[in-house]
Design goal:
368 residues, mainly alpha, Serine Threonine Protein Phosphatase 5, Tetratricopeptide repeat, 20 helices, TPR repeat, TPR-like_helical_dom_sf, TPR_rpt
């Protein structure tokens, strides 16, 4: 009886830990991780609870941006013999769901969605509305990254409805509103998108969530950039970078990249080069090859006129199947060369953008 209570106590702690992860409360998540890890050796052996711990730990490592560690944990679980036969529905659901989240962070968006589809077949066996909301949120983000806006909006709206009903998940409510705004932006509904982002900023301020506020400013910058309001875009990116948590994470590198880009577009070349050096150095140091490649492309286009460097950057993005990004960069280059009167290069990059869009459609065929 005591052993069962011990198992249940640890399981309850794991539920609380996972809740803090979904709420992006890094401080609490780290504290609970340490407490549970210290108590785990004193728990009598229970394979289900140990597996649950490993799965939540893999999700925790993603929150902390230790992606390789998360992948190692999931890989070790996957090596288990007869995983599906020897585990219950909850363990199987979390394995496939977290595998999808991991693949998303690895930029393998179609693979992420394929994992999500397996997890979805088990979702009805997880009697937790907030878990369903979390699932819909993650799926919405993945579909957004492969330009499947209708699917993304459908899942985002389901997530938003549930998160709104639970005040402890206010950050997820804000994030769900931002993914709706991102879809609207891609669908050229600029005013609606801007209104959503401004609303997300106000909600973040009211809740005292500095990270959500900075992330909303980052996305607002993208919205202004699309409308060619480059000064307002730059101001928004700088606001985003004023938050240390965002600045020091992967999103910080992305914000510097986007800031560099709009500064070049606004003919602020000296300022752009200063930010380029900071951003490229960080991307190189932190092994963020996607952003390295994008910095190389942007610098080659606007600063050095180095077409070989531009092709090198594009080549890496193509090798990673980041076709949406390839398409956007090529369209940007095509318009740049068109404005410069360089018809040959303009035509070349319009063709490259069109090819990239075709590859996105081919990626969709990989969805099972």
């Amino acid at each position: 009886m005591l052993d069962q209570i011990a198992h249940q106590e640890i399981a309850n702690d794991l539920n609380e830990w996972y809740k803090s992860i979904k709420q992006r409360d890094k401080g609490k998540a780290t504290q609970l991780h340490q407490e549970i890890r210290d108590r785990l050796p004193n728990m009598s052996e229970n394979q289900t609870v140990l597996l649950y711990y490993s799965l939540i730990e893999s999700r925790y490592e993603l929150l902390m941006e230790r992606f390789n560690k998360s992948g190692e944990i999931l890989n070790n679980i996957n090596k288990m013999k007869d995983l599906e036969k020897n585990t219950d529905d909850m363990i199987q659901y979390y394995f496939y769901f977290f595998s999808g989240v991991y693949e998303f962070y690895q930029k393998n968006f179609t693979q992420a969605i394929n994992y999500y589809k397996i997890a979805e077949s088990m979702l009805h066996k997880i009697p937790d509305e907030m878990e369903m909301a979390e699932f819909h949120y993650q799926v919405a983000v993945a579909y957004y990254r492969i330009d499947q806006h209708i699917f993304s909006i459908s899942h985002a709206e389901k997530a938003l409805e549930s998160f709104k009903a639970n005040s402890t998940y206010y950050e997820r409510e804000i994030y769900s509103e931002m993914i709706l705004a991102a879809n609207k932006l891609d669908m050229l509904c600029y005013k609606e998108s801007e209104a959503n982002y401004l609303n997300a900023i106000e909600k973040s301020k009211s809740a005292g969530s500095k990270y959500s506020e900075s992330l909303a400013y980052f996305n607002l910058g993208l919205c202004y950039g699309r409308q060619k309001l480059y000064s307002k875009a730059a101001e928004s990116f700088i606001n985003a970078l004023s938050n240390n948590e965002l600045k020091n994470g992967v999103v910080g590198i992305k914000a510097i990249l986007e800031l560099t880009h709009v500064l070049y577009k606004n003919n602020k070349s000296e300022n752009a080069q200063s930010w380029y050096k900071k951003g490229f150095s960080r991307a190189e140091k932190e092994g963020e090859k996607e952003y390295e490649a994008k910095f190389i492309f942007i610098d080659g286009l606007y600063n050095t006129s180095d077409t070989l460097s531009m092709q090198k950057g594009l080549g890496y993005l193509e090798s990673q199947n980041l076709w949406t990004d390839v398409s956007e960069l090529c369209l940007d280059a095509a318009h740049y060369y068109k404005n410069m009167g360089d018809t040959a290069n303009s035509s070349l990059y319009f063709e490259k953008a069109h090819y990239a869009r075709d590859q996105i459609l081919k990626l969709l065929e990989e969805l099972k």
